[in-house]
Amino acid sequence: MFRNYLITAWRNIIKNGIFSIINIFGLAIGLMSCILIMLFVQNETGFDTWLKDNDRIARMHTSYSIPGQEPFSTVRSAGSMMEAIRDYAKNEIDSGVRFIQWGTTVRQNGNAFSETISMVDGNFFDIFDLPFLHGSKESSFKKPMDLVITEDQAIKYFGKTDVVGETLTFCCFEGREIPLPITGVVKKLPDATHLGINMIVYLQPALFGENDGTLHTWTSLNVYTYFKMNPGISLEQLQERVTYWMDNESPLVDMLKDILGDTANDKSVSDLVQQRVMLVPDLHLHAKKHAGNMGDLTPMGDDNMINTFIVVAGLVLLIACINFMNLSTAKASKRAREVAMRKVLGASRTQVAIQFLGEAIALVMLSLLFALVAVEIALPFYNDVLGTNLKLNLFNDLNLLFSLVGIAVAVGIGAGLYPALYLSRFLPGHILKSSKGAESSSSTKLRTVLVVFQFSTSIVLVIATLVVYGQTVFSNSMDVGYQSDNKMVLNIDSAGDNLESLKLELLKLPEVNAVSFSSESPTQDWENNNNFKLLESIEEGVANQALLFNIHNMGYGFFEDYGVKPIAGRLFDEDYGSDKIVRIEEGNEDKVGRASAILNVTALKKFGFKNAEQAVGKTLETNTAGGIHHLTIVGVIPDIYFRSIKYGVRASVYTFSPGRFRVANISFSSNDIPSLITKVERVWKNSVPMQPINLQFLSEMMTAQYSDEMTMAQLFLVFSGLAIIIACLGLYGLSAFTVERRTKEIGIRKVMGADIIDIVRLLIWQFSKPVVIANLIAWPIAAYMMLTWLEAFPYRINAIWLIPICLGVGLLSLIIAWTTVGGNAARVARKNPINALKYE
Amino acid sequence: MLKLHNLTRVYQTDDVETLALNNVNIEIKKGEFVAIMGPSGCGKSTLLNTIGMLDSPTEGQYIFAGEHVEGYSEKQLSEIRKKNIGFIFQNFNLIDELTVHENIEMALIYHKIPAAERKARVEKVMDKVGIAHRAKHMPSQLSGGQQQRVAVARAVVGDQALILADEPTGNLDSAHGQEVMEMLQSLNDEGTTIIMVTHSPAHADYARRTINLFDGHVVTEDVRAA
Ligand SMILES: Nc1ncnc2c1ncn2[C@@H]1O[C@H](COP(=O)(O)OP(=O)(O)OP(=O)(O)O)[C@@H](O)[C@H]1O
Ligand SMILES: [Mg+2]
């Protein structure tokens, strides 16, 4: 019996030739999309679930939303918060730990490596129970400056894992090298973790002064704070407790009154500053929404992107299933006789239905095999686009294997159920008596509805792709306000006192035209903000009130190098000698420092100046470099986009504080980039010995800003292309079938005087109708979706563009449908009608 | 009206060559009612299709209304065909998805006749063949005789001067066959030229002239007195 089914199934696959190919090909592509996306999703989910007690560990994130100021969020928090909250919420919190991430250099055997070490509170291993290879959490982490490293770091530096007792030398803290003995080695962390840490140091609070901006602060957000909750406490309870403390007990209550004055009365702290907790396993995918435009310990996942691609993969698969349904019901009349005979011979409806379901599942399984091959072929490209290292390892990953088989069976049932029920319904008497096909008009209608669905979906996908692409191109090509060509950005964090000699040596290179220092290069943004108070009162302006501004520090020549020209006043200029902020020494706190500031246009407006000229000569008061400074506004520049234009321009104050310089901006003119790099590296080696170089091209940094969108656009392009191809295959199959079914009608029409053109037009119109309807459905949906998506961008392509995109995609879909159907139509229209009419 | 001169039609299949029509010479005048008879496979349908320009002769000449049409392109033939010739088939060949009205109207659509006129003409011809009350029905809802009447209506609605009927009664019982024959008779009385293939001597009697085919040859021609 079963064998008989299998034989019929196989013969049907063979006999249906082109239809089977369409089905198998479509399903294989659909399944391939699903597998590719499943691999990605698998890679992005399940983070940190391997951690012991992961459901009890939460991290606290900070958001500021102070009226009149740009909202600001980060996954970090202020250094004083952890202890205060832990001691207050004893009922909820078992313990807490802070991380301070410190970028440093490890020197070993004459080599220098950049490393980020994590300075953590001593109870780190009580909360994060990482498995020790050598040493133990009791013995290895007893006192400040104990150093535990991961197995991969041990191998990197010593070529073995048992390195307890060896020493690593870090450079430099307060100008001194610090040798630290290794006290323990933990296993390499799994890939699925947000904890990107590999050198863990027992925090020595004494390293940080009493009034530092790291450990002892309520407002500077420089540490990562984790709490381990007591058993049975939910995240909501913890959140409630933290918020209560913020609103009623924290020092921020008084600070709020100080800042806002009387207007603070009807506000609670949590209206302005939120401390939000999130469970560790959620961090990878969900921390992004708390992170502002700042990063995390490891690159963050994007649950939006994942959800989008799950939907897209589902749609591609659905489109393939619809092909299967359409072609099988269309072909049903051909198999009506077989069904009738089986029933006459005693098969029940259920048996017949199961037979067809089985056939569907067999076909899907066959497709799955092709899909797996296709995945293997596509994976390298896919990994390239996503920047991942996904592998298909079916036999090591039984979960994956079973879920794939599960999906295949589900798809088989999903695609085969309707045809099975439909086919098994045929009444033998009816079929065997009449020579006519058993095709009912309701099944024809359903097919049309499904084709409309396929095409609407594909069209929405294509429109979405074009909009994402358009926005990405637009973002990339937008005028950022500065000249970005031929610029290199050299990190000078570790250059110490060698800055001036470094600059001189660089300028000696013939290719180097200019070198200027700054706190960040364009595209970098460390979210430095400071309060500024305008001292002179101006008409309709905001004088004598502290306002928060974004702050950047630039040296002489920075703006000139980037081609930024002042619209009023001047740029920083050595000849004036008065621009530099000088640190106020301890003991002289009552002195007021004097220096210069430059505003951008947005800041100009925020202060309420009528024009740029009015601002020049006015004074800003701020607390920086050890005390109060009065800064004379010497110039105003146009808005320039330091950040990705995704985030818009903020009100910015540019000052000249050499202590804050972190990069050298090198302007060059050379076509021999590799030799230039070598020369710069040599200069670095000579001027800053024993420090690794960190050199980047600005053009690459700028491209990287849009890499998420670019990835999204590329993947969208591929998957919507696949969707269209599958839908067209389906349309081709249906048109071939329809043409076959309508041969007689076409013959009659020809006899009645229809030309080839008339026939082709007739068929094309029949297939154009669903495509036209699909467009009318897809346009508003796609337009709504994409307008919503675009809202996230402060600078976006004009909504008007959607009209030509929709019309263009509509036309394209019609042309594709016409070429698909046209071939079949022309073939049959050219046939001699008598052949069609002779026999029924 | 038309003249076949030394007409030959050879079917070439993989290895066999079938001589379906062999040196046929026939002339048919305007207003004639001609029956074609002969055993199965003797080439009746081939002859009718050739006359109807659905098939082209292998050799010989075909003169239709004074024009030599042998070398005409498919497009030219289709033009002549739709102006002059209506077809009736044994299996009716109505389009299942269209109503009676639409089936008949179809013949006019390809004549590029305006909608209002089409409607008037279709209604007139439906009256004539007595199926006006079935205008909205689908072919499957009609009896065979009714379906063949629709086919007749479709064949004449374009005012074609020549009607070719291949066994128009072959699928009908005798009563319905009679009905259709009477309709053809009355059309012929109004001046339409009719060429009909039939196996029924009784139905052949409606015609003035009977051409007997055997193996692609014209064997005899009987002319019945008016
Ligand atoms: N398309 C074709 N290809 C090959 N041979 C054909 C084709 N059409 C008809 N024939 C052959 O030509 C000969 C004449 O066929 P035709 O259909 O004209 O016969 P007929 O007289 O109409 O027969 P019947 O009374 O059965 O309808 C037959 O031998 C037939 O097999
Ligand atoms: Mg015949």
Provide a descriptive summary of the structure in words.
The complex is a heterodimer of chains A (840) and B (226). Chain A is an alpha+beta fold. In chain A, the strands form three sheets. Chain A has a six-stranded mixed beta barrel with strand order 4-5-10-7-9-8. Chain A has a six-stranded mixed β-barrel with strand order 15-16-21-18-20-19. A four-stranded antiparallel beta sheet of chain A has the order 14-22-13-23. The radius of gyration of chain A is 34 Å and the shape is elongated. Chain A starts with a helix and ends with a helix. By secondary structure, chain B is of the alpha/beta class. Helix content of chain B is 34%, strand content 28%. Chain B is built from seven helices and ten strands. In chain B, the strands form two sheets. Chain B has a six-stranded mixed beta sheet with strand order 6-7-8-3-9-10, with helices on both faces. A four-stranded antiparallel beta sheet of chain B has the order 2-1-4-5, with helices on one face. In chain B, helix 4 packs across helix 5 and helix 5 runs parallel beside helix 6. The mean pLDDT of chain B is 88. The interface between A and B is medium-sized, with 20 and 25 residues. The complex binds adenosine-5'-triphosphate and magnesium ion. Adenosine-5'-triphosphate binds next to strand 2 and helix 1 of chain B. The site of adenosine-5'-triphosphate has 12 residues of chain B, from strand 2 and helix 1.
